[in-house]
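The protein record passed on below.

***
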Amino acid sequence: MIEKVGNVKLIAVSEGIDTSYDGYSDGDAEDVLLDIFKSKDSGRKIARVLSDNNSWPLTYHLSPERGNIVDWYDFKQNTKVLEVGSGCGAITEALIKKDILLDSLELTYKRSLINANRNKKSQNLRILVGNLEDYSSNQLYDYVVCVGVLEYAGSFISGPNPYSKFLKILRSHLKPGGKLILAIENRLGLKYWSGAHEDHTALVFDSIENYLGDKKVQTFGRLELQKLLEEHFETTDFYYPYPDYKLPHMIYSDHYLPGTNCDFPLGQLPSPSPDRSRVYLYSETLAMKSIEKNELFSNFSNSFLVVAGQKQEKTQAKFSVFQNKRRNNFQLSTKIYDNYSIKTAMSNESSEHIDQMLKTYETLEKSPLKKKINVVMPRQISKTRLRFDFVEGETLENELLQAILDNNKSKAKSILMNYLKMLDALPKEKTNPSENGEYIKIFGDKYNKKVSCYKYVPIDLNLDNIITNKNQLHLIDVEWFFEFPVPAEYLFGRFVYWFFISRYRDIFALISNKYGFKNYDDLAFIPPYLIDVIEPYLDKEVLYRVVANEVAFQYYVTGNEVSVTDMLYKWSDRRINVRELIDKVNDVESKLSAQNELVSYMEEEIKKLLHSIELIKKSRTYKLAQKLQKLRPKK
């Protein structure tokens, strides 16, 4: 043993371990991390670092989203787990919350020390310090977890084929029937085609071009990775974290794929690149539509998460989504299984939110909304979990988006008008919502006057929460419900903001010239045939009030302050419009070609003139004229 930190032992895997070795390091960021986790107020320091939007290494190591990559997985109780490449302990922190016994192996002592201080209260953790090749033990494990390590095997595993050898070693530490859980980037991920730098070499297109330089670090495509794993494992179950395995918000599977079983939430695109600035060579949103149509999502996912073993997985969720960016009391995860989904509180505080949601659904049983739309009702399976029947179908948001992209004017107009009819049919009353203190606490005071308001209506009536199936509408998510009056224009305005401004403004701007979309007060590009439907409900003044309400509401949910201007103008214009550049190049080439033709024509004309001059000089007339010129008397 090297030392003990709190309840956690640090154990060397071989004699003479070099505690000064730092072959892989995030430099000064690791000193900051060690200071944070040694302090008595680490929670406050972490919150400050994350809110200050500090350096990528600190965000990467401290973000609660890191743990989502293993949180989704249902480990069997009382099993033994080996984590390989535990780093500074972010994944370790998530694993020790499971009912398991955990050994975390890390190559460098300093990172192991950070991990130990981070998780020093844990009763189910040992930290092994050293190289995996040096770890020889009779201990076999039910699971081996390896997140973001395989790509580095060429740097720390000896031999001609380090990646295969690394997987072989991992397999040797598993019990019969054990599982390897592995995460890695996809070398052919969509974001790398559109301009994101390769994560390890920081070179654009490096992974796509097969790492032409030193291959000490490399990632793999879907088929490459599958073949590599199949050298040592009988089965491989692929999952697809988005935006990647580092900070996953959603995790798809081969049983729940965009384009095959569901629609990708296009508002999540383009893929973020928090570690460094990047350009966007094309619309990832429109590219995703093509990927879905051709069922290629599994090949273009930015990252892979693979469960490899001796037999197929059966009980895991086929899709998971996490709400880590909220305040603790609102953090939920949603997992979809074969014919049902489960919402789970992600913290002790958010169990109260689960309880409130159940009360909301009980209230909605008597709501006039139930006559207009089928509200998918849950049943409680514990204090922290609600179960819902799974509804097949397409969201109204995706239907409207596709109709606009197809320039199907009648369908797009019909969807929007039917949505508005549903809202208009709900009972309203004219009142001043700001007279209620709870309303101001959540939504602010921008509606300090009498306006038409809904009561006992959830504000979740956005099109992405409404599924259409066999001409029946289903409201699949009712999380935000308030007993006080809420302005009617706010509910419709939320749709306009999230649909036309926040999620799809970039692609509507891209196709605006082609389809003649109107630039709506420099805020959104809206088809003219929908402007007529929208304008009776919304003008610029109303939109600003709506967004001010949404700013206040998002702060209530997340604790993150933003301004109305930030929400309305948050898009980035770092995208390179390749079409525009190509058109400009073609235009210049066309003009240059025309100029070259003109020059060639003029050169030919000059040659003809010079030839004519030569003929004239050789003529008798010219020679006679020259002689006569000489005979003229001088003045």
